[in-house]
Amino acid sequence: MARVLVLTGDAAEELDTMYPVFRLREGGHEAIVAAPTTRAVKLVVHDFEPGWDAYTERPGHQLPVDLAFADVRPEDYQALVIPGGRAPEYIRTDPDVARIVHHFFDRDLPVGTICHGPQVPAAFGLLRGRTTAAFPPLRTDMEMAGATFVDAPDVVDGTMVSCRGWPDLPEWSRAFMHVLEKAPAPAVR
Predict the structure, then answer these.
(1) Alpha-carbon span 142 to 131, nearest angstrom
(2) Beta strands at 148-149 and 56-63: parallel, antiparallel or unpaired
(3) 29 tagged catalytic
C-alpha cells in the first residue's frame, strides 16, 4: 500500500483534513501528516449559514502531526494530499512546502487537493495548463494561475484530483483512491 503525505497547518478545515486521513488509513494506506512543526495543528470547522455571504468558521479538533515540513523526504511517499481551509494561504510560503510539492508534480505522482488546497501548487506555477476544481470563489485565482477551473466534485487531471470542498469528499475520495490504486507500486523499504 502507498505512503501518502498530507500537508496541513493551523486553520485547515477539519473535514477537508480528517476525512482523507481516515479514508486513506481505512483503505490500508499510510497517511502521514506534516505541518510547520510537530505540535498538533488546530483545525477549524467551516459551515454555510443562512443569511451569510461567506462561510462561517469555528474552532475544531486538533490533529496530531507526524513530522515537520523541514524533515519531509518526499521520495519516501507515493502521493500527496493538500486539504483546504485557511492553512494553504500560509503553508504555501514555506520553502520546504515548495520543495515537497514540486517533487510530486515533477514526477507526475498522485496529488489530491481539496477546497483551498490548490492555492499551494498555484503559488508555484504548477497549475498552468492543468484543470482543477477549488472552492468556487477561487475561480479567478485558479485562472490567473493558468488553470482551467471546473465547478465539480471530482475533477481528475491525469494524476491530480481536486474538489470544491468538504461536501464533495465522497466523490473526491473515490476518484483519488482510484488514481492512487493505478499509480506504480511503492518500492520495498
Answers:
(1) 9
(2) unpaired
(3) no
Q: What is the pLDDT of residues 13-68, one digit of tens each?
A: 999 999 999 999 999 999 999 999 999 999 999 888 899 888 888 989 999 999 99
Question: Pairing state of beta strands 148-149 and 131-132?
Answer: parallel
CATH architecture designation of domain 3-182:
3-Layer(aba) Sandwich (3.40)
pTM above 0.90, yes or no: yes
Residue type, 17: T
Between CA 118 and CA 163, with CA 80 as vertex, the angle to 5 degrees is 40
Domain ranges of the chain: 3-182
Q: At 98, which amino acid appears?
A: A
Which listed residue (29, 61, 116, 178) is catalytic?
116
The beta strands (E) that lie in the chain are given as 3-7, 30-35, 41-47, 56-63, 67-68, 79-82, 111-114, 131-132, 148-149, 155-157, 160-163
